[in-house]
Predict the 3D structure of the following.
Amino acid sequence: MDINYMNILINEHYTNFEQLKKLIISMNITSGMDKNFCAHLAEKMLQQLEKGADMQKIQNIIESELCVGYGLYRNEFNSEKITNEIMYWWESN
């Protein structure tokens, strides 16, 4: 793999990461959600999306991270809606 191809992959990942992070922030899942947490969530999901994760895997990540990582209860967010928006973004990207 040559260096130019590696740079293209890195730039593509960074661009996708920034777009996904902005999407997560724009969802306003909970008021005042920490932008560092949004970045963490975006990176975790993007890594799985790049590996070909399906909708259920992404929804599990969202539920786990928002409950365990951020301390929300499942009734405080709609994981299915969030997942649908992320999958639509990914498939349209």
About this structure: The chain has a mean pLDDT of 95. The chain is about 75% helix and 0% strand.
